Amino acid sequence: PIWCFIIFYGYLERYDKRNSWDLLRHIASLSFIPWCILGDFNDLLSRDDKIGNYDHPNCLIQGFREAISNSNMSSTAIVLPEQSLAAEKAGLAVNKKGLTLKELLQQTSHHNPKVHRDALIGIKDLFTRYPAEQKLQKYAAVEKLRERIGDDDKVVRKSLYDLFKVVILPCCKEDNQELIVSLLMPYIFNAMTHLVVDVRMMAFDFLDLILEFYPPSFSPSYAEKIFQNYEDILVRNQYYL
């Protein structure tokens, strides 16, 4: 038999939810053969599906229900083995939304900048709640978070800077400082050569953090490369002089 298979990803922002619902209705109106739609709708059919502390308005639940009903769909939840359900997180360190560090670090690689920002805020919250988890996972966190030093989104970079300055680097100050510096410097240098000037300039803010927290571990071999990058910025963008 012939049937149609559709992959769907719903809008994240609440003010865009109606667009998702209208799209579902539109898809249903176009199909004259059996069809199956699979994906992440970023919506809830019931309050029982909610995980975390933030409330989900009844109007959004009702709107999604109506869209499903209008589209003549029946819903089936698929639970993957790697998904962490609330019951499986008992005793684990989670942030106020019920997410583990592993889940939050994975979200920092998401294509949506807002997801990046929320993940960084979530990591800050988790480490504040569970200092022992921070001490245990700090190197793994730095290794993943350093990828966002050259992020195109200014708010993401600022959130990362605050996370490093207030939470992560102070915690690592008494540990292997050379390791932290060696993990961060390649990504700082990479950001210094970014096409976007704002990214290049903020790379020096991250460099300042290294100098602030780990001055003895800063190798003189970095100096020449730093001066070259800064000179290039001055030459190309004289308004920063």
Automatic annotation (TrEMBL):
> Where's it found, cell-wise?
Nucleus
Cellular component per GO, a single term: nucleus
Q: Which SUPFAM superfamilies match?
A: ARM repeat, DNase I-like
Keywords of the record, alphabetical order, are:
Nucleus
Pfam families per record: Ipi1_N (PF12333)
* Annotated ranges, domain Pre-rRNA-processing protein Ipi1 N-terminal: 179-236
- Whether Nucleus counts among this entry's keywords is yes
Record bears the keyword Ribonucleoprotein: no
Q: Which Gene3D superfamilies match?
A: Leucine-rich Repeat Variant
What the record says about family reads: Belongs to the IPI1/TEX10 family.
PANTHER family from the UniProt entry: REGULATOR OF MICROTUBULE DYNAMICS PROTEIN, TESTIS-EXPRESSED PROTEIN 10
- Indicate what this protein is called per its UniProt record: Testis-expressed protein 10
